[in-house]
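Figure 6 in text form: structure in, sequence out.
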């Protein structure tokens, strides 16, 4: 992935409320979101998993069931990197607390065979 091909996923405020979503860029970007007004103040986990030619994004608050956020195509031969990121592009006051970061094999439960 590079400056022309990238994906970001997480929670952001849009239309005045928190939204879980993803931006997928392959020359052009598209954005998908879903409102999560019940998530502020809770521990949110975003899981990105790669298998075959797909990148699967899921998220949850606390120990709730995983919600599918996005499935995006990804060239199986493409090199990819990942890491935490936060920003407040138009004003100050954003407070974000990262409580963990892990990298490992794709979760087989997210990519069932058959």
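Output sequence:
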């Amino acid at each position: 992935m590079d400056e022309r091909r990238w994906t970001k996923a997480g929670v952001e405020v849009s239309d005045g409320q928190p939204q879980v979503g993803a931006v997928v860029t392959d020359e052009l970007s598209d954005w998908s979101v879903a409102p999560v007004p019940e998530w502020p103040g809770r521990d949110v986990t975003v899981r990105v998993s790669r298998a075959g030619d797909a990148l699967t994004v899921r998220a949850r608050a606390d120990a709730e069931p995983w919600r599918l956020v996005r499935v995006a195509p990804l060239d199986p031969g493409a090199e990819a990197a990942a890491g935490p990121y936060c920003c407040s592009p138009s004003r100050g006051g954003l407070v974000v607390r990262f409580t963990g970061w892990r990298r490992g094999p794709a979760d087989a439960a997210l990519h069932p065979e058959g």
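Caption detail: The radius of gyration is 15 Å.
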